Amino acid sequence: MHTTAIIAAGGRGRRLGAAVPKQLLAIGGRPMLQLSVEAFAAHPRVTDLVVVLPPDVAANPPEYLRRPDGRIRVVAGGERRQDSVALGLAATDEKAEIVVVHDAARPFLDAALIDRAIDGAISSGAAVCAVRAHDTVKVAERQAPGGGDAIWISATLPRDAVFLAQTPQAFRRSVLADAVRLGQAGVVATDEAFLAEQAGHRVRLVEGSSRNIKITSPEDLAVAQTLMADAGPRTPDSGLRVGLGYDLHRLVEGRRLILGGVEIPFDRGLLGHSDADALCHAITDAILGACGTGDIGRHFPDDDERWRDAPSTDLLRRAVCLVRDRGFAVHNVDAVVIAERPKLSPHLPAIAGRLADVLQVGADDVSVKGKTGEGLGEIGRGEAIAVHAVALVRRL
User: Fold this and answer.
1) CATH code assigned at 40
2) How does pLDDT run across 124-137, given as a tens digit for each residue?
3) Burial status of residue 353 (CB atoms within 10 A of its CB: 0-12, 13-18, 19 or more)
4) Which of 14, 94, 169, 346 has its CA 20 to 30 A from that of 253?
């Protein structure tokens, strides 16, 4: 299912009193906008993102929003939040079936929150992450004019019936389109769920998170810095990450055998949509997996004509750029090619050198070994070649 995330970051956050838009302020060394974007970019069910920024920022967006795969689209926002979301929806791909709206000022969302919002929208049309109110909730009114600034209780609400709405909020595209049209007709709202309600749609509540705070005031920013320090692995000092990759391709006549970007003389080659370089494919999956940014099928699907007969070294090079956009670089790679024939040892130095060039590492940082299938299974019968790969990446 094609799912698009709209990151609402078109405001200035003047209540925070910062010299720059608040979404660009750093928490634990990274802007809160980047943290919010990364949560969606890494989610396997999110197809693409639209990031709505103040016009001056959109004209020169931060480097982490400039992705070579075009998966992130940047647009200029409007005067109000609902205007920015409307502009974001207009920029989405028409194939998007589910649209998730999230405030950039909530940088502590996680994959489970995104899943619950998407699942709620799929089953009910619209869903909002929310947490139960733990305090007694009072409805207030001011004293009659001329009586001072006193505030008085006019009602007490049943606590069990009160929920505090958060983002992400997810909608079937048609539901959000109805909500946006109502906002454009003059209805003012603080979130899209209210507009969807006013448009006649029922909105489902799904479980939110107490950590999913919205940063509005200097006090909120201080709390966020503390949460980030406690989170540990999300800080810039989290160090190294490991990814695992695997690929298997059938050997057929009439194809060249390409492994690690090197053509190997043989009577058959690997069958696939691209050049079917199983070694590059396994390494690509390993480095993408290390950064939690999906797999080769998401970024280079086998039903996309752009990748038909494409050199897999090109795909691997693009993956290196994706990893770098997430703030990582490849440290080293180790791979095992399992093939009954041909004998790979004469070609391994050339393969390692080619891969080192693509991965932008030293030749000593690439290890490729050849093994046989010992006559067992389709590999042992010489019908296929398989590759296992492990990649270590480091934060820049």
Assistant:
1) 3.90.550.10
2) 999 999 999 888 88
3) middle
4) 346
In a domain, 156, yes or no: no
d(CA 314, CA 307): 10
Cis link prior to 168 (omega < 30° from 0)?
Answer: yes
Same domain, 166 and 206: yes
Is-contact 35 22, C-beta < 8 A? Answer: no
DSSP 163-189: EEEEEEEEEEHHHHHHHHHHHHTT---
pTM of the model: 0.60
| Rounded Cα gap, residues 210 and 229, in angstroms | 17
Asked if the structure places residue 141 within a domain, the reply is no
Of 156-170, 181-195, 317-331, minimum mean pLDDT range: 317-331
Determine the pLDDT at residue 249: 93
Sign of the Cα pseudo-torsion (317, 322, 325, 330, in order): negative
pLDDT digits (tens, 9 = 90+) for 205-249: 999 998 899 988 888 888 888 887 766 544 444 468 899 999 999
Tokens of 302: 């086998």
Longest dimension (CA), the chain: 96
Show the domain range for 306. 240-395
Final residue before a domain boundary, out of 198, 231, 264: 231
Four-CA torsion 269, 335, 247, 339, nearest 10 degrees: 40
Say which CATH number the domain at 266 has.
3.30.1330.50
